Automatic annotation (TrEMBL):
Signal sequence segment: none
InterPro entries in the record: Saf4/Yju2
Top-level division of the source organism's lineage: Eukaryota
GO CC aspect terms: post-mRNA release spliceosomal complex; U2-type spliceosomal complex
GO aspect biological process, one term: mRNA splicing, via spliceosome
Organism: Araneus ventricosus (Orbweaver spider)
Family: Belongs to the CWC16 family.
Cross-referenced Pfam families: Saf4_Yju2
Name of the protein this chain belongs to: Coiled-coil domain-containing protein 130
Coiled coil: none
Length: 239
């Protein structure tokens, strides 16, 4: 469909190639309605929500990935990277909220109209490998003593993490064969299924023998020991 529209364009009878493109001839922009505020520095784009938020107007939850028609505006620069602001309207109420890019932290910042649902954590708490920030990277280049201390700390951390890495590699090699893993799991499932069927058959025979209609619990070693200590005696021996 897109190729058909691109090839079969309508050319008015009074248009000639020396008058430029069709958009120039008609006085329209190639982006049509999306560029209606382009003279104000605003471009209409399709914006996808980068994280979960709460709307301050209706207090409803808006999930990550929900898309809006947003007004994109350039508001500044971070070194050579432009900073953009996106303004959009909530689809559940009349409230508008604004989100701005944060190139310094590789993130987005909510300016107004909404609040972020906090699901961030410190990656060092669960022993994740965290890349160095820009200040540390600069000191590694400019400060020789700091670089030496940093290398010593890296060697100490390497010795600490090395046993865990070896265990992960061993477990990975152990389960590397997908066929063997599948075969082992299916064999365990069959054995467990046979045990359950055998236990159910014994329980049915026992209930039928004593004409009982109760649910039997699985046997335990303590029950066997206790049953071995009990002795049944006739009633006349008690007097």
């Amino acid at each position: 469909m897109a190729e058909r529209k691109a090839v079969n364009k309508y050319y008015p009878p009074d248009w000639t190639p020396n008058k430029g493109s069709i958009n120039k001839f008609k006085g329209t922009h190639a982006l049509r309605e999306r560029a209606r505020k382009l003279h104000m520095g605003i471009l209409i784009i399709r914006f996808e929500m980068p994280f979960n938020i709460w709307c301050n107007g209706c207090e409803n939850h808006i999930g990550m990935g929900v898309r809006y028609n947003a007004e994109k505006t350039k508001v500044g620069m971070y070194y050579t990277t432009p900073i953009y602001k996106f303004r959009m309207k909530c689809h559940l109420c009349t409230n508008h909220f604004e989100i701005q890019t944060d190139p310094a932290n590789l993130d987005y910042v909510i300016l107004n109209g909404a609040r972020r649902q906090e699901r961030r954590w410190d990656p060092t708490q669960n022993e994740q490998v965290v890349p160095e920030d820009k200040e540390v990277s600069k000191k590694l280049v400019t400060d020789s003593m700091f670089c030496l201390e940093h290398n010593v700390n890296d060697k100490v951390n390497q010795k600490t993490i090395l046993p865990s890495l070896r265990k992960l590699e061993e477990s990975r090699e152990k389960w590397k064969d997908d066929y063997l893993l599948n075969k082992t799991l299916r064999q365990q499932f069959r054995e467990k299924k046979k045990e359950i069927a055998c236990t159910e058959n014994k329980d049915k025979q026992l209930l039928k023998k004593f004409s009982l209609n109760i649910a039997l619990l699985p046997e335990a070693d303590e029950d066997r020991k206790l049953a071995g200590l009990l002795k049944l005696a006739p009633l006349h021996s008690m007097f």
